[in-house]
């Protein structure tokens, strides 16, 4: 059926192919070339963009390359001790955990610190406790000597050795003493962990931070009392937490615990004598 310039097909079953309709006279037909848009990605290369899934040749493929050295084997044995990755787990600790352990160090008679930190000892808290002690001890010791000289109208000079002495004392004490104790416990076949000893001794020094702050009060007897109380609490904290572990060392366990206790008291006395004994 024809209606003007349009052709319509009646509703009927059409089988076979439909013959092409020739253009009426006077009309121009537009022909489209074959396109490959029905496939993605296209199979052929067009310009710089290839048919593959990779980036263009002039694109920055830095992020698509593997990081150099990521597949290299990590050091093992004693060599791993000199890598940062070996110490990373001991600094992965929450603030709430550090505060909880500080609170336990201020309650020395509980003796449960080692059990709580047996599986997760940290070095983050001990490091910052020692670092804080260095600056607190040096600054307060300097302030005490300054006030003492000014009260007597005498000339005062700053002593830089307070910083170096404090750093050597605290860092050295929290490193050398646990290491020596670890060797002794190994000799007596007593169960012990080196990192756990570092953790225990580091937190045992926290009590000296408020003790040093209270030592600003210019009464020598009061300073001796503060040093004695801080030393006793710190020594009790370490001794009670190590007592159960050291008991397996045999009959000499009491001597080891007594030595640990007296060594902590000696630290408190050394702080008092060096930092807060003013000579004018």
TrEMBL record:
Membrane topology: Multi-pass membrane protein
Cytoplasm listed as a keyword: no
Domain of life: Eukaryota
Main location: Golgi
Transmembrane segments: 123-148, 168-185, 197-218, 224-242, 254-275
Chain residue ranges for the region called Disordered: 1-73
GO biological process: vesicle-mediated transport
Keyword Translocase: no
Gene Ontology MF term list: small GTPase binding
Subcellular location: Golgi apparatus membrane; Membrane
GO CC list: Golgi membrane
Family: Belongs to the YIP1 family.
Protein name: Protein YIP
Organism: Escallonia herrerae
């Amino acid at each position: 059926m024809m209606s003007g310039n349009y052709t319509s097909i009646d509703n009927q079953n059409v089988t076979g192919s439909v013959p092409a309709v020739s253009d009426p006279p006077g009309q121009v037909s537009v022909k489209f070339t074959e396109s490959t848009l029905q496939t993605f990605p296209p199979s052929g290369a067009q310009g710089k963009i290839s048919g593959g899934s990779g980036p263009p040749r002039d694109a920055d493929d830095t992020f698509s390359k593997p990081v150099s050295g990521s597949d290299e084997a990590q050091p093992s044995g004693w060599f791993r001790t000199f890598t940062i990755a070996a110490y990373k787990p001991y600094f992965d600790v929450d603030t709430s955990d550090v505060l909880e352990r500080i609170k336990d160090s201020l309650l020395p008679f509980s003796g449960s610190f080692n059990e709580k930190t047996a599986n997760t000892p940290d070095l983050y808290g001990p490091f910052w406790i020692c670092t804080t002690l260095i600056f607190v001890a040096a600054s307060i010791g300097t302030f005490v000597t300054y006030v003492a000289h000014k009260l007597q109208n005498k000339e005062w000079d700053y002593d830089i050795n307070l910083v170096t002495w404090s750093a050597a004392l605290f860092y050295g004490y929290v490193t050398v003493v646990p290491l020596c104790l670890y060797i002794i416990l190994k000799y007596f076949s007593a169960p012990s962990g080196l990192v756990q000893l570092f953790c225990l001794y580091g937190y045992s020094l926290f009590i000296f931070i408020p003790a040093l702050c209270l030592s600003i009060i210019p009464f020598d007897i009061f300073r001796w009392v503060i040093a004695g109380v801080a030393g006793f609490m710190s020594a009790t904290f370490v001794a009670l937490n190590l007592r159960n572990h050291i008991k397996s060392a045999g009959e000499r366990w009491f001597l080891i615990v007594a030595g640990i206790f007296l060594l902590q008291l000696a630290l408190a006395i050394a702080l008092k004598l060096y930092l807060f004994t003013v000579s004018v």
